[in-house]
Amino acid sequence: MRYMLFVATDPEAEPYDAEQDDIQDWVKEVYGSGKGVVGDRLREPQDARVVRVRGDDLLVTDGPFTESKEWIAGFDILECASLDEAVEIASRHPMARFGRIEVREFWTLGLDSGA
């Protein structure tokens, strides 16, 4: 099963510590084990665009879709046997300490791959 880790900032979390929070160690472990599928950092919210279609109108606005001090800083997709395994892997991510991680299982569309 595939799981998406939404890696988010959290202004109430512990401060970042470069010695303790080396993301490269986590990446080597998770992606080296084959559990990591793909992941990356995301640009800051002010670089985002929000796209909406309302009737015949295309609405594009700058910045995040919500006023929040928290924002999605990156993502990882994992291939795991269970939600418990995905949560355990997420718990070792440095951002689990100085940010927050949301774990969600993919909800596949069920499209016929032969089409």
Automatic annotation (TrEMBL):
Q: Where is the YCII-related domain?
A: 1-106
Which protein family is named in the record? Belongs to the YciI family.
What PANTHER family does the record point to?
A: BLL7171 PROTEIN, BLL7171 PROTEIN-RELATED
**What is the recorded name of this protein?**
YCII-related domain-containing protein
What species is given as this protein's source?
A: Orlajensenia leifsoniae
Q: What is the lineage of its organism?
A: Bacteria, Bacillati, Actinomycetota, Actinomycetes, Micrococcales
